[in-house]
Specification:
Two copies of one chain form a homodimer. Chain A is mainly beta and about 190 residues long. Chain A contains two helices and 15 strands.
Chain lengths: ~190, ~190
């Protein structure tokens, strides 16, 4: 029996766009990111339907299945809220010990990483940069360029997402534009 | 504290080549693939140091760590053993229920898949094709093109590899060149 699957899923190797079956997309607008940026007044003065990022996910497993994987691409638009670069909410995994791979497809970004004691470091993202995010490490994408930042990702289907720890405690630093360049500042700044 | 990791790992988005720390490489020659191809006499008549495929792996976890992931690229050269296309050994995961993602970076291939009851199907591989290999499914790459087949992969660090089931039972079909095109034939053919 020769069977070729008629429904094929594709990832555009230039921009990371996923197409085909089992692909879903979600969008995060400025209106949905209340409290994440340092300058809340600046965020409120901007059009609330401004898309900050989109996430596409290829999922052939249900969330929570052990041994399974998900595959996705994050598209983070360029922009500023006040002087702070557009960024994702960031998350830990609900099952904290679960890892994730990121690889940058296009654009220029910062991958901000912190452990559960808020020790942090960052990694430079550029086309072809590869990033292993081990368990117990929260991660956030920041677009410090002038074009879209596309990042491929693969993670366990039982990892889950914990956004609340980020809402409650934040990351220990913010990435702001200063003299035309990214600068790291304390989160209270 | 601003720390940028000085040692960066990169994946070449055009050909899948990994470079930087934590990357290892292994090679499979014709001499190491005794018993995998249908025409063992043809295999023996060829130079035994002919490289059939290379695998690069980025590993920041030890094999067996729960929740972790590995990332790699397989490079399968074009060629024939008799009329059978160059292919990988193929494997199940030692922890059978573990999944894997493949995505084709360059070349033209066939992804041969079979379950533990030897039910099989195949998926066409071409640049940008995305393939989810669920748990309990053995998988083998076959290069049916004239150039190198590069395939990206991500899999759980506790998946492990079971090659022995393939050695003992084989896949139910072989992919051979017939009239210049791939054809699927029974493994006894």
């Amino acid at each position: 029996m020769i069977v070729e699957k008629s429904l094929e899923t594709r990832v555009n190797l230039q921009d990371g766009i996923l197409s085909g079956p089992f692909v879903s997309e979600s969008i995060r607008t400025l209106g949905q990111l209340k409290g994440f940026f340092g300058d809340e007044h600046a965020r409120m003065r901007m059009p609330q339907d401004t898309v900050v990022y989109k996430v596409q996910v290829h999922a052939k497993e249900k969330e929570g299945v052990s041994g399974g994987l998900f595959f996705g691409t994050s598209f983070l638009y360029p922009g500023l809220v006040g002087d702070e670069y557009f960024m994702t909410k960031g998350h830990f995994h609900a099952r904290l010990f679960c890892a994730e791979y990121y690889w940058c497809i296009q654009g220029n970004g910062v991958l901000l990483l912190m452990d559960t004691d808020a020790n942090w470091h960052w990694e430079r993202m550029y086309p072809g940069s590869l990033h292993y995010i081990p368990g117990n490490v929260g991660h956030r994408l920041i677009n410090v360029g002038d074009s879209i930042l596309s990042v491929g990702a693969c993670w366990p289907s039982d990892a889950g997402h914990d956004y609340r720890s980020i809402v409650e405690r934040g990351f220990p630093v913010r990435v702001k534009k200063a003299d035309g360049k990214p600068a790291f500042t304390g989160s209270e700044a």
